Amino acid sequence: MASWNEIMNEIKQQNPGSPLDIVRRKYIKKLNEITGRNVICYYSGFLSNSKHPDVGINDTDMTGFMTAINNLDKTKGLDLIIHSPGGEVTATEAIGNYLREIFGDNIRVIVPQLAMSGGTMLSCIGTEIIMGKHSNIGPVDPQFGGTPCYGVIQEFEKARKEIIENPKTIPVWQPIITKYPPAFIEQCYKAIELSKELMKEWLYNGAMFRDEPEKEKEKKIENIITYLNNNEMTKIHSRHINTKKAKEIGLKVVDLEEDDNFQDAVLSIHHCYMHTFSNSKAVKIIENHNGIATIAITK
Question: Please, which residues bridge with residue 54 across strands?
Answer without folding.
Answer: none
